[in-house]
Write a structure and sequence with these properties.
mainly alpha; differentiation; IFT81_CH; flat; Actin-binding Protein, T-fimbrin, domain 1; coiled coil; cilium biogenesis/degradation
C-alpha cells in the first residue's frame, strides 16, 4: 500500500498535474479533496470531466465517474467485496476506493486517453427492436454502423502510419537529397552538352543515339510481349489439359451410367443444394448474427464484477424455473391433444438432426475433394514445368540411363574442346592487347596529324558513325527475326485453336442434349418447389401462432419480473428505514450518555432548547427596544435639530468672513488711489 501511495504522489507531482504533494500531505487529504483530485485525473483522460465537484451533486459525480470507469474497463480490487460498496465508497470519497483507482489510472494514462477518445465514437447506441421496424430508423442505424466501421479502419491506418516511422523530417531530407541529385544531373547534362557541341555533326549523332534508344525500348517491349504470350500459351495449355481431364471424366461417367442414374444424381444434388440454401445456411447465418449481436452488447457494457455475475445467474435460474412451470402448466392443459403428435414430433426431430449431420459430412467430403483436386492440379502443373509429367517404367529408365551415358561422353569431348579453345583464347587475348597498344599509339599519331592539319576529331566521328550504323543493322536483323518468330507462333496458335475446336465439336453436341435435359429437370424442380412452398406456408402459419403464444408468455414473464423487482426495491427501502429506526431506538434506550447524544431525538431536543433560549433572549431585547423607542426617537429628533442649528451657524460664520475679506480689499484699493 505504501508503494502504491508513493507511486501516486510521484505521478501527481509531475506534468501535467504538478500538485507538490508528499506522503503526509496526500494521506491527510479529505474525502472532497480526494474526489476533486480523481476528477482532475479523469479530466486528463477525457476533457469532458473538467468539473468542479462543489457545483455538482454527489449522485451526479458518482454516476459520471462510474460511467467513465466502465468505459475504461476498470475492475475494482478484490478487497472490495461488492459493487454497491464500491459505489458507496466512491460517493463518500473513501481512501480504500479512491487510491486503487488513482494508481490504476496513473499507470496507463496514455492508453486510457486513447480508449476514452475511441469510446466517444465506438460506444454503440442501443436502439430497441420495435423502433428498427421503421425503414427510416433502420437506414439511419445501418448508416451509423457503416460510419463506425469506417472510423475503425481510418484509426487503424492512422496508427499504422504513426508506427511506420515516416516523419516529416525524413521526408524533407529525402526531398533535399533528391533536389541535390537533380541539380547534379542538370550540371552533368550541361557539361555533356558543352562537350558535344565541339564535335562536328553532333545533332545528327544525337538523333542517331535517340533512335537507338527508341529501338532498344521497342526491343524490350517486344521481349515483354513475347514473354506474356508465352505465359498465356502456358495457361491456355493448362486450361486445355483441365478441360481434357473433365471431358474424360464426363465421358467415363456417361459411358458407365444410364439416364436414370444421371437424373437421380442430379436430383440428389438439387435436393442437397436446396436444403443448404433454404434451411442450413439461413439457420447458421441467424445463429451467427445473434451471437455477434450478443457479443457486441457484452463488449459495449462496462466491466462486471463477480457479484454482478452471481446476480445475473440467479436471475437466469429464476426465469428458467418460471419458464419450466409455465411449460408444465401448458402441457397439463394441452396434454390430450398433444399426445397424438408427440411421437411424430420426436421422430421428426431425430430425422432433422440426422439430416443435418449427414449434410455436414457431405459438405466436409466435398470440401476435402475440392482441396485434393486443387493439390492434384498443382502437382500436375509442377510436373509439367519440370518436364516429368509421368512415372518412368523400367525400359524407359534404361533408355534414360543410356541417354545419360551418351551425353556424358559428349560432355567430356566438349570439355576437352573448351579447354583447347580457352588456351587459344588466352593467346588471342594477349595478341588483342598488343594490337590495342599499337592501335592507341597509331591513334595518338593520327590525332597529332589531324591537329596539325586543323581537322581534329574526324577519325573519331567516322568511327562512331560506322559503329552506330553497324548496331542499327544488327537491330534490324534482330527485329526481323523477332517478327518472323512471332508470326510463326501466331500461326501455330491458330492451328492449335482450330484443332481444339474440331475436337470439342462432339462434346458441344452432347452438352446441348444435356442442357435440354437440364431444362426439363429444372421445370420439374420448379413444380416440386411450388409444392414445397405451399407446405412451408402451412407450417409457417402454425409457427407464427406458436410464436405469438411464446411472445405473450414472455411478456407476462417480463411483467412478473418487473413486479418482482419493484417489490424487491420497496422491501429494501423499508428494511433501510427499519434499520434506521432500530438504531435510533437502541441509541435512545442506551444508558450511556454518549450513545444517547447520538440519537436523533436527543439532537433535535437539544436544538429545540437552544432555539427556545435564543427566542427568549430576542423577545427580551425586543421588549427593551419597545420601551425606549419613544425617548430614543425624541433624542434623535433633538440631535437632528442641533445638527441643523450648527450647520446654520457655520454658514453664517463663513458668510461673515467672506464679507470682511471683501471690505478689507476695497479699503486697500482706496488707499492705493489716494497715494497715486
Amino acid at each position: 500500500m505504501g508503494d502504491q501511495i508513493q507511486f501516486i504522489v510521484e505521478k501527481l507531482n509531475q506534468e501535467p498535474f504538478r500538485k507538490n504533494y508528499n506522503l503526509i500531505s496526500f494521506d491527510s487529504l479529505e474525502s472532497l479533496q480526494l474526489l476533486q483530485l480523481l476528477s482532475d485525473v479523469l479530466k486528463e483522460i477525457d476533457p469532458k470531466h473538467a468539473v468542479d465537484i462543489r457545483e455538482e451533486l454527489p449522485e451526479q459525480t458518482a454516476k459520471r465517474m462510474l460511467n467513465l470507469l466502465g468505459i475504461l474497463k476498470y475492475k475494482p480490487p478484490e478487497t472490495v467485496s461488492d459493487l454497491s460498496a464500491f459505489r458507496q465508497g466512491l460517493v463518500t470519497g473513501s481512501k480504500a476506493v479512491i487510491h486503487p483507482v488513482l494508481h490504476w489510472l496513473l499507470q496507463r494514462t496514455n492508453e486510457l486517453r486513447t480508449r476514452a477518445y475511441l469510446a466517444r465514437f465506438l460506444v454503440k447506441v442501443e436502439v430497441p427492436a420495435e423502433f428498427l421496424q421503421d425503414d427510416t430508423v433502420a437506414d439511419f442505424n445501418k448508416q451509423y454502423e457503416e460510419l463506425m466501421e469506417a472510423f475503425k479502419n481510418l484509426h487503424k491506418e492512422h496508427e499504422q502510419l504513426k508506427i511506420s516511422g515516416l516523419s516529416t523530417a525524413e521526408i524533407r531530407r529525402d526531398i533535399s537529397a533528391m533536389e541535390e541529385e537533380k541539380d547534379q544531373l542538370v550540371k552533368r547534362v550541361e557539361r555533356l552538352k558543352k562537350r558535344v557541341e565541339t564535335v562536328q555533326n553532333h545533332q545528327r549523332m544525337l538523333e542517331i543515339a535517340r533512335q537507338l534508344r527508341l529501338e532498344k525500348e521497342r526491343e524490350e517491349s517486344l521481349a515483354q510481349q513475347k514473354q506474356e504470350q508465352k505465359s498465356q500459351l502456358f495457361h491456355a495449355e493448362q486450361r486445355l489439359q483441365r478441360a481434357q481431364v473433365q471431358l474424360k471424366e464426363m465421358q467415363h461417367v456417361v459411358a458407365d451410367s444410364k439416364p436414370e442414374s444421371l437424373m437421380k444424381k442430379l436430383e440428389e444434388e438439387i435436393n442437397f443444394n436446396s436444403y443448404l440454401v433454404t434451411e442450413k445456411i439461413p439457420r447458421e447465418l441467424e445463429s451467427k448474427k445473434t451471437s455477434v449481436y450478443f457479443l457486441q452488447k457484452v463488449v459495449a457494457e462496462p466491466a462486471m464484477t463477480q457479484a454482478d455475475l452471481t446476480a445475473l445467474e440467479s436471475q437466469v435460474d429464476e426465469v428458467n424455473a418460471q419458464m419450466n412451470q409455465l411449460i408444465e402448466k401448458r402441457m397439463i392443459i394441452y396434454e390430450p391433444a398433444d399426445n397424438k403428435f408427440s411421437m411424430y414430433r420426436q421422430q421428426a426431430s431425430i430425422i432433422s438432426r440426422k439430416k443435418e449431420a449427414k449434410a455436414e459430412e457431405l459438405q466436409a467430403a466435398k470440401e476435402e475433394m475440392s482441396s485434393l483436386e486443387k493439390q492434384m492440379e498443382q502437382k500436375s502443373s509442377q510436373a509439367h514445368e519440370l518436364e516429368g509429367s509421368e512415372v518412368l517404367t523400367e525400359d524407359e529408365f534404361k533408355q534414360y540411363v543410356n541417354k545419360l551415358r551418351s551425353k556424358n561422353t559428349f560432355y567430356k569431348k566438349k570439355r576437352r574442346e573448351i579447354a583447347a579453345v580457352t588456351a587459344e583464347y588466352g593467346i588471342l587475348q594477349r595478341t588483342e592487347e598488343l594490337l590495342r597498344q599499337r592501335h592507341e599509339a597509331i591513334q595518338q599519331q593520327l590525332q597529332a596529324i589531324e591537329e596539325k592539319k586543323g581537322i581534329s576529331g574526324y577519325s573519331y566521328t567516322q568511327e562512331e558513325l560506322e559503329r552506330v550504323s553497324a548496331v542499327k543493322s544488327e537491330m534490324d536483323e534482330v527485329k526481323g527475326q523477332t517478327l518472323d518468330n512471332m508470326s510463326e507462333m501466331v500461326k501455330k496458335l491458330n492451328a492449335m485453336v482450330a484443332e481444339k475446336k474440331a475436337s470439342l465439336a462432339p462434346v458441344i453436341k452432347e452438352l446441348r442434349q444435356l442442357r435440354q435435359n437440364c431444362q426439363e429437370l429444372t421445370q420439374e424442380c420448379d413444380e416440386k418447389k411450388m409444392q414445397y412452398d405451399s407446405c412451408v406456408a402451412g407450417l409457417e402459419t402454425n409457427r407464427s401462432a406458436l410464436e405469438q403464444e411464446v411472445k405473450g408468455l414472455l411478456e407476462e414473464c417480463a411483467q412478473e419480473e418487473s413486479n418482482y423487482r419493484y417489490i424487491h426495491c420497496m422491501k429494501r427501502s423499508l428494511e433501510i428505514q427499519l434499520q434506521r429506526a432500530k438504531e435510533e431506538m437502541k441509541a435512545y434506550v442506551s444508558p450511556e450518555p454518549q450513545e444517547r447524544r447520538r440519537a436523533v431525538r436527543e439532537q433535535y431536543t437539544r436544538i429545540i432548547l437552544e432555539q427556545e433560549n435564543l427566542g427568549k433572549k430576542l423577545r427580551e431585547k425586543q421588549k427593551v427596544v419597545r420601551e425606549s423607542h419613544g425617548s430614543n426617537m425624541k433624542q434623535m429628533k433633538m440631535w437632528q435639530d442641533f445638527e441643523q442649528l450648527m450647520e446654520c451657524k457655520r454658514d453664517c460664520f463663513l458668510r461673515q468672513q467672506n464679507q470682511a475679506a471683501i471690505g478689507q480689499i476695497i479699503q486697500e484699493g482706496g488707499k492705493d488711489r489716494l497715494v497715486l
